[in-house]
Amino acid sequence: MYDFDFEKPSSIADAVAALATEDAQALGGGQTLIPTLKQRLASPSKLVSLTGIAEMQGVCDDGDAISVGGATVHADVAASGLIPALSDLAGNIGDPAVRNRGTIGGSLANNDPSACYPSAALGLGATITTNARSIAADDYFQGMFETALDEGEIITSVSFPKPQAANYQKFEQPASRFALVGVFVAKTAAGVRVAVTGAAEEGVHRWGAAEAALTANFSADAVPAAPSADGMISDLHGSSEYRAHLVAVLTRRAVAACA
Amino acid sequence: MPKDGGIGASSKRREDVRFLTGQGNYTDDINQQGQTYAVFARSNVANGVIKSVDTSAAEAMPGVLAVFTGEDFVEVGGNPAGWYIESRDGTPMKEPKRPVLAHGKARHVGDAYAAVIAETLEQARDAAEAIDADIEELQAVATAEAALAEGATLVHDEIETNMVFDWGWIEDNRAATDEAIKNAPHVTTLELVNNRLVPNAMEPRASIGDYKPGTGDYTLHTTSQNPHLTRLLISAFVMGIPENKLTVIAPDVGGGFGSKIYHYGEEALVLAAAKKLGRPVKWTADRSESFLTDAHGRDHVTKIELATEEDGTFIAIRTETLANVGAYLSNFATVTPTFLHGTLMAGNYTVPHVYVNLKAVLTNTAPVDAYRGAGRPEATYSIERVIDKCARELNMDPIALRRKNFIKPDQFPYTTPVALEYDIGDYDAVMDKLEEIGDLAGFAKRRADSEARGKLRGLGVNSYIEACGIAPSNLVGVLGARVGLYDAATVRVNATGSLAVMVGAHSHGQGHETAFPQVVADMLGIDEGQIEIVHGDTSKIPFGMGTYGSRSLAVCGSAVVKATEKIINKAKKIAAHMLEASDADIELKDGQFTVAGTDKSVAWGEVALKAYVPHQFPIEDIEPGLEETAFYDPANFTYPSGAYACEVEVDPETGKVTIERFAAADDFGNVINPMIVEGQVHGGLGQGIGQALLENCTYDSDGQLLSASYMDYAMPRADDVPFYSVDHSSQTPCTHNPLGVKGCGEAGAIGSPPSVVNAVVDALQSGGHDVSHIDMPVSPSRVWAAMNK
Ligand SMILES: Cc1cc2nc3c(=O)[nH]c(=O)nc-3n(C[C@H](O)[C@H](O)[C@H](O)COP(=O)(O)OP(=O)(O)OC[C@H]3O[C@@H](n4cnc5c(N)ncnc54)[C@H](O)[C@@H]3O)c2cc1C
User: Fold this and answer.
1) CATH code assigned to A58-161
2) Which among A196, B47, B412, B717 has most CB atoms closer than 10 A?
């Protein structure tokens, strides 16, 4: 690691002020950022820990939606059970150490193309609230590791509408156990949403053809044939064809699990 | 009744108390007065000309004490290959120099070309980044095939080829084998890859060099499986430090699997730096360095042919293999693919003709060397996969085909066409045991259950044999070994009757501290707790060759037996004197020396005390003290064998393979500690399953390591492996060592990969897929691709 300063503010306002320093960076659970620092792949001037900010902690029931503080750890989301599919997803991220450190804000800010949370946010049509504004999930994810966040902007909470039914299917990459492909299916009053992670070079995205077919007929048989392999990731762990195939398999399984 | 001590007892591993409570003493735990830190600058390119290395900025940085480059080591020697191999045409193998630090050229990603020594680790890191090296990247060769292609870049220009040798075993068999295959009624051919593996010992390599200017003594603490071998290499070949001035200490070592047999440049560097600074210098690899620079394992590309009669009787086996040995020849790199591989190519079978051709090829990748099993997993995998394919082609039961060709108990000692003499075994007995513990009769029902759940189920079975307990020095000397392969033990009885046993073997997880005392305790009839094992320090132990090749108990344990026999002989003389009897009449039982046929006796402790307080002692006939050393050089290899069965389920939609059952029946000869043996088998099976399903060390065509961290290199985890059924009750004791033991450390890793792949192929075939082979690791994507080709 290179040297850096460290601050642990207790309010959002103080955090935003601390992040105004040039090259300052927010620190959530550090599960992504700390390894990056250890490998000397980043050199922030200052780390601003968000885990001491009480208003960014916890899961609460808002009636039609649930709201998750931006610094809430995966273990807390897993334990909440308010949206079972979301809790299941959180409960299968990494290992206990990762789940007791890693935060939803960190995961969504990082937007790793193989991460789980982005598919839930997009699949449930979440709203991401920052210190400055609210952003619809459909506008938030902008490609691998790219988001709508501005420099120094922090995710303070995420609001997930409660679905009629939802399920997340994760097919693990054998080494990292991130999603080789993950599919989040949500049935809502406004129709069905299908969000795919792990598969595509554009990162998390919605599978429009499946959404249309499932909105018309919410059954596993209605899931269309696998999407095109063009634009799918191809690497050591699977070809683009394989990933495209898994998208359809997992979508069918997710729909079946919703029943 | 299980015994509660001595040979055959499942004594609890005494070393685990310290390992499991964080009290182990590993190299990185050791901190010395005035210690400094080394960090290496390593090449980012796989093949590049080092045009210049400007260290001036680094030298000026805070805390920096010294910077070394390849230039500083041009005068010292190279790290040699430990085994000389001749090509088929009689030409000597090519031996490019392996320098302490790369000089002139960097030959693989991670090849170190400079090192910084600083007051703190972070200062050394900062300065290493400030080294300004101008390295001109050249085209790299990452695979053996690419390296042998016309016009391929040379890894070492001076040897004018990338081929180290083109070896035939046995060359005299070649013509007859070719002829037999040509005329055979049936030939099964299989092309396969034995995937490259990263060893991944839990403890990364680490070394501390120290030099005392007052005496000229050097000390190296290092992560080694064989401290004397390391000292010999450093003294005689690399640095020229006199052996009497260098102590090598391998304290607790957290796993090796072969990767810590070898001497590495970092060890020489910390010694040279300690000398220059007069201060201790520590280096500990980070995990990325382990991935890039620990000697990797396997990496064979093989074509194997098995010729049979129509009834399945084996006629001939012929293989052609390319072995990627990486950028430099590591110490066992030349013996592993040859004598530890080609000599096993008859397996457990009577095959009249066997011929093995193997080309060892340099590439721009990390050195490749022995890794748990070392050559024998490659042989077993090739043989047992081709037999399975053959059984399918002949429409025979794979177990029946194996049994038909097994060497039978009355054929031992049995000399194979590839020149090993198997002393003993009973392969049918082990297969019978496997059928029982694996409940193979129940497979059909289990398959039906899986199918009812939409899964394909497969059963894979195979046998294996390995040559362990390496090795007779006379034999390996003829074959090209540059060292002897005996081992040594000193048994020191203390005045109060407790014992220290100094052994040449090194325990880095195996459990020697528990098992070796069981042997001595059994022989003396005293409590194991009175016996302490000392290992890993060249200043304390006799000159031994260390631990690898499942040799510790078979070779070093035999030395322990011989030294203990000498102790008993002398103790009997002392007892005879004390009892005023003749030594021929003294019997030792349960720690008591008794005059035969009388009730006159003295206890072990009294005899020990007498040896060290020799009052009224026959000084003319018996020296005081009770300490004996023995060296043991085996008469032959030992030949553990076994039969394994794996049952998998395959998800036909995703290609994911899960191992549902795994049974391993082994013949290790006599067993000293059944619990430790079972643990060794479990560990080996985990590694073999890792190779078969998960592990995949992959370089791209530019020589960049794609699987350079745990994000991409899949290690087996607890939920990847099933609960094993393990049995080692089929015992044909080794005929030539005093304990009748054969070795068990590598078996699991040798025997399991083919059973896993055989099972996957069986599952796919049962689902109507015309798949005869999938290369390891049998990952979901590969299985799916095979099903959908
Ligand atoms: C072994 C292991 C296994 C894992 N497995 C999975 C898995 O299966 N699925 C999965 O989805 N993830 C997995 N992860 C990633 C894990 O979920 C991380 O917790 C997550 O990616 C980052 O969260 P964090 O709180 O640790 O963020 P940090 O590492 O602290 O930060 C990550 C990035 O987000 C920024 N940031 C942090 N918090 C905020 C905020 N509130 N607002 C704005 N920016 C912020 C930081 O500046 C940084 O750029 C795994 C991680 C590990 C180490």
Assistant:
1) 3.30.465.10
2) A196
